[in-house]
Design goal:
By secondary structure, the chain is mainly alpha-helical. The protein has helices at about 1-10, 15-20, 25-95, 100-130, 135-150, 155-165, 170-180, 190-200, 205-215, 220-230, 235-250.
Length: about 250
Amino acid sequence: MEHDFFKRYVQEHKEAFENEALPPNMLGNILGNMRERQLLQERKKRKLTYTWMAVAASLMMVVGTYLFLSKENTVTKPGSQIVSNKDEVEMPANLPAEVVSPKTQVAVQKPTRLVTHQPKVQQHKEIYAGLADSLSVASRLNAVLKAGSLNKLDQKLKTVLCQVFNEDENDNVRLATLEVLSKFSGDKYVQQQLTAGLSKQKDPVIQLELVKVLGHSNNPETTDKLIAMADNPSTMDVVKDQVYFALLTKQQFQ
């Protein structure tokens, strides 16, 4: 910059430099002007520097204020959110617990009891329906087998089974029914119906099995029925042999 100023000064005073004799104090004037020029430029630089510093300071204050306010708002907002969320979480805890009245509990337990007895009731219905099916031997046999799976027979079922044993037209159904009733031959009603069968049953296989079931009975009526069967000419020899064996065994244990 100083070089340019010196060059311009020389061009402006070219005539003076071309004269052989230089004006008095020429170099001093040049250096003085250069010094004034330099001082003027330094003042401008300082003034510009101070101006930029003031602007920068103002900007820093503005930015700092903005950041401070933003930070305060940011800290405050989560607090309010936490409070609101806390209220939302605690509200269900303050609700009263639902109380189940005893009536409701009984209403819930009753179906359970019904379900417990439901299979037995349904099974009895199926047995009665099968035994009443006069058109299907298979249905009656299946019903008899279901009855045989029971550990206990009520009076109604005992009556129906004894009726089937004495009246069903199919020998296989009567034989299967005899097998079921033999498990309950100690029952007074069942024993009476089986004893009546000694004079009603005509199938040799059924007669043979019936004698085996009643052969140990000490009932006088049963003994009379067995003697009558042995004296009957239509009774097969194999059945008579079984009757003689039963009567002989009873005499030995009397």
